[in-house]
Amino acid sequence: MSIPAGLSDLIVHNSDFGLLVIDRYERVVVWNRWLAVHSGIAETTALGARLTDLWPEVSGTRAHGAIRDALHHGRAGFISHAFNPMPFPLRGLAGDRFGDPIDQLCLVRALDSDDGTRRCLIQIENISSAVRREKHLRGQIRELQETKTRLETQGRDLEEMARRLRTARDDAQRANRAKSEFLANMSHELRTPLNAIIGFSEMLESGYGGSLSERQASYTKDIHDSGQHLLQIINNVLDMSKVEAGQYQLFETAVDIRDVTRTALSIVGGQAADRGLIVETLLADDLPLVMADERTLRQILLNLLSNAVKFTNSGGVITISGGIDPAGDIAIHVRDTGIGIPEEAIGLVMEPFQQANGSFSREYDGTGLGLTISKNFVELHGGTLTIASEVDVGTTVTVLLPKSRVLDETSAGL
Description:
By secondary structure, the protein is α+β, with helices and mostly antiparallel strands. Helices cover 48% and strands 20% of the residues. Strands 2-1-7-6-3 form a five-stranded antiparallel beta sheet. It has a five-stranded mixed beta sheet with strand order 9-11-12-14-13. Strands 4-5 form a two-stranded antiparallel sheet.
Protein backbone atom coordinates (compact mmCIF):
# COMPACT_ATOMS: atom_id res chain seq x y z
CA MET A 1 0.00 0.00 0.00
CA SER A 2 1.52 3.34 -1.04
CA ILE A 3 1.57 6.48 1.07
CA PRO A 4 -1.00 9.04 -0.15
CA ALA A 5 0.45 11.94 -2.10
CA GLY A 6 1.63 14.76 0.06
CA LEU A 7 1.38 12.78 3.30
CA SER A 8 5.13 12.20 3.49
CA ASP A 9 5.83 15.92 3.18
CA LEU A 10 3.17 16.63 5.82
CA ILE A 11 4.78 14.19 8.24
CA VAL A 12 8.28 15.50 7.59
CA HIS A 13 7.42 19.16 8.02
CA ASN A 14 5.23 18.70 11.10
CA SER A 15 7.60 16.43 13.05
CA ASP A 16 8.59 17.61 16.53
CA PHE A 17 12.25 16.88 15.76
CA GLY A 18 14.61 18.02 13.04
CA LEU A 19 14.84 16.11 9.73
CA LEU A 20 17.68 17.01 7.41
CA VAL A 21 18.55 15.20 4.19
CA ILE A 22 21.65 16.10 2.15
CA ASP A 23 22.99 14.71 -1.10
CA ARG A 24 26.43 13.35 -1.89
CA TYR A 25 27.66 16.91 -2.44
CA GLU A 26 26.42 17.85 1.02
CA ARG A 27 23.66 20.00 -0.37
CA VAL A 28 20.39 20.26 1.52
CA VAL A 29 17.56 18.25 0.01
CA VAL A 30 15.11 18.26 2.96
CA TRP A 31 14.92 20.98 5.61
CA ASN A 32 11.79 20.61 7.74
CA ARG A 33 9.90 23.27 9.62
CA TRP A 34 11.43 22.31 13.04
CA LEU A 35 14.92 23.06 11.66
CA ALA A 36 13.75 26.36 10.16
CA VAL A 37 12.27 27.43 13.51
CA HIS A 38 15.30 26.50 15.64
CA SER A 39 18.01 27.59 13.21
CA GLY A 40 16.43 30.80 11.96
CA ILE A 41 17.13 29.67 8.35
CA ALA A 42 14.10 29.43 6.12
CA GLU A 43 13.49 26.31 4.06
CA THR A 44 13.77 28.24 0.82
CA THR A 45 17.19 29.50 1.86
CA ALA A 46 18.41 26.11 3.02
CA LEU A 47 17.33 23.96 0.09
CA GLY A 48 20.17 23.46 -2.39
CA ALA A 49 22.76 25.14 -0.15
CA ARG A 50 25.78 23.28 1.11
CA LEU A 51 25.52 22.37 4.76
CA THR A 52 28.87 23.93 5.64
CA ASP A 53 27.80 27.14 3.88
CA LEU A 54 24.73 27.33 6.07
CA TRP A 55 26.68 26.31 9.18
CA PRO A 56 30.40 26.93 8.71
CA GLU A 57 31.09 25.94 12.32
CA VAL A 58 30.03 22.34 11.50
CA SER A 59 32.97 21.84 9.15
CA GLY A 60 35.48 19.33 10.51
CA THR A 61 33.41 18.38 13.55
CA ARG A 62 32.35 14.93 14.69
CA ALA A 63 28.94 15.55 13.14
CA HIS A 64 30.54 16.43 9.80
CA GLY A 65 32.64 13.29 9.99
CA ALA A 66 29.58 11.12 10.71
CA ILE A 67 27.78 12.65 7.69
CA ARG A 68 30.71 11.90 5.38
CA ASP A 69 30.94 8.33 6.70
CA ALA A 70 27.28 7.84 5.84
CA LEU A 71 27.62 9.38 2.35
CA HIS A 72 30.84 7.67 1.32
CA HIS A 73 30.75 4.38 3.25
CA GLY A 74 27.09 3.87 4.13
CA ARG A 75 27.81 3.81 7.81
CA ALA A 76 25.15 4.72 10.36
CA GLY A 77 26.28 6.96 13.15
CA PHE A 78 25.18 8.14 16.52
CA ILE A 79 26.44 11.50 17.73
CA SER A 80 26.75 11.07 21.49
CA HIS A 81 25.53 13.94 23.61
CA ALA A 82 28.26 13.13 26.13
CA PHE A 83 31.05 13.98 23.63
CA ASN A 84 29.27 16.47 21.37
CA PRO A 85 26.20 17.87 23.17
CA MET A 86 25.38 20.56 20.58
CA PRO A 87 26.64 19.37 17.14
CA PHE A 88 24.50 21.87 15.20
CA PRO A 89 23.90 25.57 15.96
CA LEU A 90 20.27 25.26 17.01
CA ARG A 91 18.59 27.26 19.74
CA GLY A 92 15.42 27.04 21.73
CA LEU A 93 12.74 29.70 21.71
CA ALA A 94 12.12 32.26 24.43
CA GLY A 95 8.95 34.04 23.41
CA ASP A 96 9.61 35.64 20.06
CA ARG A 97 13.39 35.41 20.44
CA PHE A 98 15.99 32.67 20.45
CA GLY A 99 16.86 31.23 23.84
CA ASP A 100 19.58 28.88 24.99
CA PRO A 101 21.37 26.39 22.68
CA ILE A 102 19.58 23.08 22.34
CA ASP A 103 21.06 19.87 23.70
CA GLN A 104 20.79 17.39 20.82
CA LEU A 105 20.70 13.69 20.16
CA CYS A 106 21.56 13.00 16.50
CA LEU A 107 21.19 9.89 14.37
CA VAL A 108 22.99 9.83 11.02
CA ARG A 109 22.35 7.16 8.36
CA ALA A 110 22.67 6.61 4.63
CA LEU A 111 19.55 6.66 2.38
CA ASP A 112 19.99 4.62 -0.83
CA SER A 113 17.32 4.97 -3.51
CA ASP A 114 16.41 2.35 -6.12
CA ASP A 115 18.46 4.13 -8.78
CA GLY A 116 21.59 3.92 -6.60
CA THR A 117 21.55 7.53 -5.48
CA ARG A 118 22.85 7.91 -1.95
CA ARG A 119 21.79 10.62 0.42
CA CYS A 120 22.28 11.17 4.15
CA LEU A 121 19.42 11.42 6.67
CA ILE A 122 20.11 13.32 9.88
CA GLN A 123 17.53 13.13 12.66
CA ILE A 124 17.97 15.76 15.40
CA GLU A 125 16.06 15.47 18.66
CA ASN A 126 15.83 18.18 21.32
CA ILE A 127 16.82 16.54 24.59
CA SER A 128 17.36 19.73 26.62
CA SER A 129 14.57 18.85 29.09
CA ALA A 130 16.01 15.38 29.60
CA VAL A 131 19.48 16.86 30.10
CA ARG A 132 18.16 19.30 32.67
CA ARG A 133 16.40 16.47 34.49
CA GLU A 134 19.58 14.42 34.33
CA LYS A 135 21.62 17.31 35.72
CA HIS A 136 19.06 17.79 38.46
CA LEU A 137 19.14 14.09 39.29
CA ARG A 138 22.94 14.10 39.24
CA GLY A 139 22.89 17.07 41.59
CA GLN A 140 20.50 15.23 43.91
CA ILE A 141 22.64 12.10 43.71
CA ARG A 142 25.73 14.18 44.50
CA GLU A 143 23.94 15.77 47.45
CA LEU A 144 22.81 12.35 48.65
CA GLN A 145 26.34 11.03 48.34
CA GLU A 146 27.67 14.04 50.25
CA THR A 147 24.96 13.54 52.88
CA LYS A 148 25.85 9.87 53.06
CA THR A 149 29.52 10.76 53.49
CA ARG A 150 28.65 13.28 56.22
CA LEU A 151 26.40 10.76 57.97
CA GLU A 152 29.10 8.10 57.77
CA THR A 153 31.60 10.58 59.21
CA GLN A 154 29.14 11.58 61.92
CA GLY A 155 28.46 7.90 62.58
CA ARG A 156 32.16 7.26 63.04
CA ASP A 157 32.42 10.34 65.25
CA LEU A 158 29.45 9.14 67.32
CA GLU A 159 30.97 5.68 67.62
CA GLU A 160 34.22 7.26 68.78
CA MET A 161 32.32 9.49 71.19
CA ALA A 162 30.37 6.48 72.48
CA ARG A 163 33.63 4.60 72.95
CA ARG A 164 35.10 7.52 74.86
CA LEU A 165 31.95 7.84 76.94
CA ARG A 166 32.06 4.13 77.75
CA THR A 167 35.71 4.47 78.72
CA ALA A 168 34.92 7.55 80.83
CA ARG A 169 31.97 5.73 82.42
CA ASP A 170 34.11 2.71 83.22
CA ASP A 171 36.83 4.97 84.63
CA ALA A 172 34.24 6.84 86.69
CA GLN A 173 32.75 3.58 87.97
CA ARG A 174 36.20 2.33 88.93
CA ALA A 175 36.98 5.64 90.60
CA ASN A 176 33.64 5.57 92.40
CA ARG A 177 34.26 2.03 93.62
CA ALA A 178 37.74 3.02 94.75
CA LYS A 179 36.31 6.06 96.51
CA SER A 180 33.63 3.97 98.24
CA GLU A 181 36.18 1.39 99.34
CA PHE A 182 38.52 4.11 100.55
CA LEU A 183 35.77 5.87 102.50
CA ALA A 184 34.55 2.62 103.99
CA ASN A 185 38.07 1.67 105.06
CA MET A 186 38.88 5.14 106.30
CA SER A 187 35.60 5.41 108.20
CA HIS A 188 36.41 2.16 109.95
CA GLU A 189 39.95 3.27 110.72
CA LEU A 190 38.74 6.64 112.00
CA ARG A 191 35.67 5.40 113.85
CA THR A 192 37.64 2.99 116.03
CA PRO A 193 39.93 5.57 117.65
CA LEU A 194 37.12 8.16 117.70
CA ASN A 195 34.82 5.83 119.59
CA ALA A 196 37.64 5.24 122.04
CA ILE A 197 38.18 9.00 122.46
CA ILE A 198 34.45 9.61 122.91
CA GLY A 199 34.14 6.68 125.34
CA PHE A 200 37.13 7.73 127.44
CA SER A 201 35.97 11.36 127.52
CA GLU A 202 32.54 10.22 128.73
CA MET A 203 34.21 8.14 131.44
CA LEU A 204 36.26 11.14 132.55
CA GLU A 205 33.17 13.38 132.54
CA SER A 206 31.29 10.89 134.69
CA GLY A 207 34.06 11.00 137.31
CA TYR A 208 35.34 7.51 136.64
CA GLY A 209 38.92 7.46 137.85
CA GLY A 210 38.60 10.53 140.06
CA SER A 211 37.13 13.97 140.11
CA LEU A 212 38.23 16.64 137.62
CA SER A 213 38.99 20.27 138.15
CA GLU A 214 36.78 22.83 136.43
CA ARG A 215 39.39 23.39 133.70
CA GLN A 216 39.91 19.63 133.20
CA ALA A 217 36.15 19.07 132.96
CA SER A 218 35.92 21.86 130.36
CA TYR A 219 38.73 20.31 128.32
CA THR A 220 37.13 16.88 128.59
CA LYS A 221 33.79 18.26 127.35
CA ASP A 222 35.54 19.92 124.39
CA ILE A 223 37.23 16.61 123.54
CA HIS A 224 33.92 14.78 123.73
CA ASP A 225 32.00 17.34 121.66
CA SER A 226 34.73 17.53 119.02
CA GLY A 227 34.84 13.73 118.78
CA GLN A 228 31.07 13.56 118.35
CA HIS A 229 31.22 16.28 115.68
CA LEU A 230 33.96 14.49 113.76
CA LEU A 231 32.11 11.18 114.04
CA GLN A 232 29.00 12.81 112.61
CA ILE A 233 31.00 14.16 109.67
CA ILE A 234 32.45 10.70 109.01
CA ASN A 235 28.99 9.15 109.16
CA ASN A 236 27.64 11.79 106.75
CA VAL A 237 30.44 11.21 104.25
CA LEU A 238 29.98 7.45 104.46
CA ASP A 239 26.19 7.75 103.99
CA MET A 240 26.75 10.03 101.02
CA SER A 241 29.15 7.54 99.48
CA LYS A 242 26.69 4.67 99.92
CA VAL A 243 23.83 6.64 98.38
CA GLU A 244 25.92 7.66 95.37
CA ALA A 245 27.03 4.05 94.87
CA GLY A 246 23.44 2.79 95.19
CA GLN A 247 24.43 0.67 98.18
CA TYR A 248 22.38 2.40 100.88
CA GLN A 249 19.75 0.05 102.29
CA LEU A 250 16.50 1.14 103.87
CA PHE A 251 15.17 -0.89 106.81
CA GLU A 252 11.51 -0.02 106.60
CA THR A 253 9.01 -0.31 109.43
CA ALA A 254 5.82 1.47 110.46
CA VAL A 255 7.04 4.85 111.72
CA ASP A 256 5.23 7.52 113.74
CA ILE A 257 6.47 10.88 112.44
CA ARG A 258 5.49 12.55 115.73
CA ASP A 259 7.83 10.24 117.68
CA VAL A 260 10.65 10.82 115.20
CA THR A 261 10.11 14.58 115.46
CA ARG A 262 10.21 14.48 119.26
CA THR A 263 13.49 12.56 119.16
CA ALA A 264 15.05 15.01 116.70
CA LEU A 265 13.86 18.00 118.76
CA SER A 266 15.32 16.51 121.93
CA ILE A 267 18.73 16.46 120.25
CA VAL A 268 18.68 20.00 118.84
CA GLY A 269 16.49 21.53 121.53
CA GLY A 270 19.43 22.38 123.75
CA GLN A 271 21.24 24.17 120.92
CA ALA A 272 18.07 26.11 120.06
CA ALA A 273 17.65 27.19 123.66
CA ASP A 274 21.29 28.25 123.92
CA ARG A 275 20.83 30.47 120.85
CA GLY A 276 17.62 31.99 122.22
CA LEU A 277 15.33 30.45 119.61
CA ILE A 278 11.66 29.49 119.89
CA VAL A 279 10.77 26.03 118.53
CA GLU A 280 7.15 25.26 117.67
CA THR A 281 5.62 21.90 116.72
CA LEU A 282 2.42 21.98 114.65
CA LEU A 283 1.97 18.39 113.49
CA ALA A 284 -1.56 17.28 112.62
CA ASP A 285 -3.23 15.13 115.28
CA ASP A 286 -4.43 12.66 112.65
CA LEU A 287 -0.98 12.22 111.07
CA PRO A 288 -0.87 8.52 110.06
CA LEU A 289 1.99 6.10 110.33
CA VAL A 290 4.27 5.77 107.33
CA MET A 291 6.34 2.89 105.99
CA ALA A 292 9.89 4.24 106.20
CA ASP A 293 13.39 3.76 107.56
CA GLU A 294 13.10 5.31 111.04
CA ARG A 295 16.81 6.12 111.46
CA THR A 296 16.98 7.73 108.02
CA LEU A 297 13.79 9.74 108.59
CA ARG A 298 15.14 10.92 111.95
CA GLN A 299 18.40 11.94 110.27
CA ILE A 300 16.45 13.96 107.66
CA LEU A 301 14.58 15.91 110.34
CA LEU A 302 17.71 16.29 112.45
CA ASN A 303 19.64 17.75 109.51
CA LEU A 304 16.85 20.18 108.63
CA LEU A 305 16.36 21.31 112.24
CA SER A 306 20.12 21.67 112.78
CA ASN A 307 20.33 23.90 109.70
CA ALA A 308 17.40 25.97 110.93
CA VAL A 309 19.08 26.45 114.33
CA LYS A 310 22.43 27.25 112.74
CA PHE A 311 21.11 29.91 110.34
CA THR A 312 18.55 31.61 112.60
CA ASN A 313 19.58 34.50 114.83
CA SER A 314 18.63 34.91 118.47
CA GLY A 315 14.94 35.59 119.00
CA GLY A 316 13.96 33.76 115.83
CA VAL A 317 11.30 31.07 115.46
CA ILE A 318 11.60 27.53 114.10
CA THR A 319 8.39 25.70 113.25
CA ILE A 320 7.95 22.08 112.25
CA SER A 321 4.54 21.27 110.86
CA GLY A 322 3.02 18.44 108.88
CA GLY A 323 -0.07 16.74 107.62
CA ILE A 324 -1.72 15.10 104.64
CA ASP A 325 -1.91 17.27 101.53
CA PRO A 326 -4.87 17.19 99.07
CA ALA A 327 -3.08 14.57 96.92
CA GLY A 328 -2.84 12.20 99.91
CA ASP A 329 0.93 12.64 100.37
CA ILE A 330 2.59 13.36 103.71
CA ALA A 331 4.02 16.90 103.78
CA ILE A 332 6.48 17.93 106.50
CA HIS A 333 7.61 21.57 106.67
CA VAL A 334 10.59 22.92 108.61
CA ARG A 335 10.27 26.70 108.64
CA ASP A 336 12.63 29.26 110.18
CA THR A 337 12.91 33.05 110.38
CA GLY A 338 16.62 32.95 109.69
CA ILE A 339 18.95 34.67 107.25
CA GLY A 340 17.42 33.02 104.18
CA ILE A 341 19.04 31.86 100.95
CA PRO A 342 19.44 33.95 97.77
CA GLU A 343 17.34 32.56 94.94
CA GLU A 344 20.40 31.94 92.76
CA ALA A 345 22.03 29.91 95.56
CA ILE A 346 19.16 27.49 96.25
CA GLY A 347 20.45 25.03 93.65
CA LEU A 348 23.97 25.38 95.05
CA VAL A 349 23.06 24.42 98.62
CA MET A 350 21.62 21.14 97.34
CA GLU A 351 25.06 20.13 96.07
CA PRO A 352 27.54 18.22 98.30
CA PHE A 353 29.93 20.30 100.43
CA GLN A 354 28.26 23.58 99.43
CA GLN A 355 26.74 26.45 101.39
CA ALA A 356 24.99 29.59 100.18
CA ASN A 357 28.19 31.38 101.17
CA GLY A 358 30.58 29.38 99.00
CA SER A 359 33.75 31.18 100.00
CA PHE A 360 36.66 29.39 101.66
CA SER A 361 36.22 31.43 104.84
CA ARG A 362 32.69 30.41 105.74
CA GLU A 363 30.77 32.35 108.34
CA TYR A 364 28.89 29.22 109.47
CA ASP A 365 30.34 25.84 110.46
CA GLY A 366 29.40 22.62 108.71
CA THR A 367 30.42 20.34 105.88
CA GLY A 368 27.60 21.31 103.55
CA LEU A 369 26.34 17.72 103.39
CA GLY A 370 23.17 17.98 105.48
CA LEU A 371 20.75 19.11 102.77
CA THR A 372 22.29 16.88 100.11
CA ILE A 373 22.05 13.77 102.29
CA SER A 374 18.51 14.69 103.36
CA LYS A 375 17.44 15.12 99.73
CA ASN A 376 18.98 11.76 98.78
CA PHE A 377 17.34 10.02 101.76
CA VAL A 378 13.95 11.49 100.83
CA GLU A 379 14.35 10.38 97.22
CA LEU A 380 15.24 6.87 98.39
CA HIS A 381 11.75 6.87 99.91
CA GLY A 382 10.27 7.98 96.58
CA GLY A 383 9.64 11.52 97.83
CA THR A 384 10.89 15.02 97.14
CA LEU A 385 12.65 17.75 99.09
CA THR A 386 12.13 21.37 98.05
CA ILE A 387 13.31 24.71 99.38
CA ALA A 388 11.54 28.07 99.40
CA SER A 389 13.52 30.97 100.82
CA GLU A 390 13.85 34.74 100.97
CA VAL A 391 16.87 36.62 102.25
CA ASP A 392 16.36 38.13 105.73
CA VAL A 393 12.88 36.58 105.91
CA GLY A 394 13.52 32.87 106.34
CA THR A 395 13.51 29.44 104.76
CA THR A 396 10.97 26.65 104.44
CA VAL A 397 12.12 23.14 103.57
CA THR A 398 9.33 20.77 102.55
CA VAL A 399 9.65 16.98 102.64
CA LEU A 400 6.99 15.16 100.65
CA LEU A 401 6.51 11.41 101.21
CA PRO A 402 4.26 9.72 98.61
CA LYS A 403 0.83 8.44 99.58
CA SER A 404 2.04 4.91 98.77
CA ARG A 405 3.98 5.06 102.08
CA VAL A 406 0.97 6.07 104.16
CA LEU A 407 -0.34 3.23 106.32
CA ASP A 408 -3.93 2.87 107.35
CA GLU A 409 -4.89 1.41 110.73
CA THR A 410 -5.17 -2.10 109.32
CA SER A 411 -1.73 -1.96 107.77
CA ALA A 412 -0.23 -0.44 110.91
CA GLY A 413 -1.67 -3.26 113.00
CA LEU A 414 0.06 -5.78 110.79
